[in-house]
TrEMBL record:
InterPro entries: Nucleotide-bd_a/b_plait_sf, RBD_domain_sf, Upf3, UPF3_dom. This is UPF3 domain-containing protein. It comes from Caenorhabditis elegans. It is found in: Nucleus. SUPFAM superfamilies: RNA-binding domain, RBD. The keyword Nucleus applies. The lineage of its organism: Eukaryota, Metazoa, Ecdysozoa, Nematoda, Chromadorea. Residues 178-197, 209-329 are annotated as: Disordered. Pfam families: Smg4_UPF3. GO terms for cellular component: cytoplasm; nucleus; perinuclear region of cytoplasm.
Length: 329
């Protein structure tokens, strides 16, 4: 964004040769008046071909006589570039009298230049390098003595551990920790389920005992099997007669069922023989021939053609009269 400053005036020196540089222009127009506070050079755009010209903008601090003298001196002045091209310059006031808020030279500078000198990590690195340099160098005898000294297990592990190895160790321990946590949660859930089942079984057993009817000890002997009773207590004559009657009825009932089953089987066999001889298993049954399909409906032309052929081939039918046959006398 631009801003206008009170009293400052911009003058433009146009139509300079296209190959002219800023150094050449300032060399030809020097010395500049004291009121000049800055200059800006615009090189020529070569895509304009013959109309390509360079431009110089001169900033004056105020409207003064030296500015008018500059206009009278260089308006129509012929400038020559390094390649011998000449052109008559034109001095005029700039159409845009606004000025930039910040300095262009300052804008071109990169603010990140020298920022590393104040960076915390860089300063720590430099300090570490200086400390390493301050460590005295061991002599050959001291180095041999240090190598011959046995290292404990901890120092050996420290030497083996690199950042990459530490990363993998931490990753593996994290996985194992997660696995142990999951396994512990799973065991806790199983223990809770087991406790619930045990409580339910205990409650169930208590209910069974409470709900069971009270039976005297003598009645428990009644629940024993009949075989045990037979072995323990001999049967009386009445019980023996009753048992023999029940056994005879059971045998008679079984004989009736068996005879009924045999009669039904014989009846089915006779019916199968009446139907025809039994086809062997390895021989397939012959399928009945399908009836012929009915012929499709005939058209009028087909029916007339069949009637015509029948009249010609049938001798019993009356002879057909032809056009050239003469009538009988």
């Amino acid at each position: 964004m631009t801003d206008s400053k009170d009293g400052h005036v911009k003058v433009v020196l146009r139509r300079l040769p296209k190959y002219m540089t800023e150094h050449e222009v300032l060399e030809q127009i020097s010395p500049l008046p004291e009121e000049v506070i800055g200059t800006y050079f615009h090189p020529a755009n070569f895509s304009f071909d013959r109309c390509a010209y360079a431009t110089l903008t001169v900033n004056f601090s105020e409207y003064c006589d030296s500015m008018m003298e500059f206009e009278r001196r260089f308006d129509g002045y012929i400038f020559v570039d390094s390649r011998g091209n000449d052109s008559a310059a034109v001095v005029e006031a700039a159409s845009n009298q606004n000025f930039a808020k910040c300095d262009r030279n300052r804008m071109k500078e990169d603010t990140r230049v020298g920022a590393i000198l104040t960076d915390k990590y860089y300063l720590d690195f430099c300090k570490k390098l200086e400390e390493e340099r301050a460590i005295p160098i061991l002599t050959l005898e001291q180095q041999i003595r240090k190598l011959n000294q046995p290292d404990d297990a901890r120092t050996q592990i420290d030497k083996m551990e690199t950042p990459l190895v530490k990363y993998f160790f931490e990753k593996e321990t994290g996985k194992r920790r997660d696995y142990d946590a999951r396994r512990q949660r799973r065991d806790e859930k199983r223990a809770e389920k087991r406790d619930k089942v045990d409580k339910f079984e205990k409650h169930k057993n208590v209910l069974d005992i409470l709900m069971k009817p009270s039976v005297p000890m003598a009645s428990t002997s009644a629940t024993t099997s009949k075989k045990d009773l037979k072995k323990e207590k001999p049967m009386t004559e009445k019980e023996k007669e009753r048992w023999e009657k029940q056994d005879a009825k059971r045998k008679e009932r079984n004989m009736i069922r068996k005879q009924k089953f045999l009669d039904e089987k014989k009846k089915k066999h006779e019916e199968r023989e009446q139907d025809g001889p039994r086809v062997p298993r390895d021989k397939k049954k012959e399928r009945l021939a399908k009836p012929p399909r009915p012929s499709p409906a005939k058209t009028v032309g087909e029916q007339q053609g069949e009637d015509w052929i029948k009249k010609l081939t049938d001798p019993k039918s009356a002879p057909m009269k032809k056009k050239h046959d003469s009538p009988p006398n």
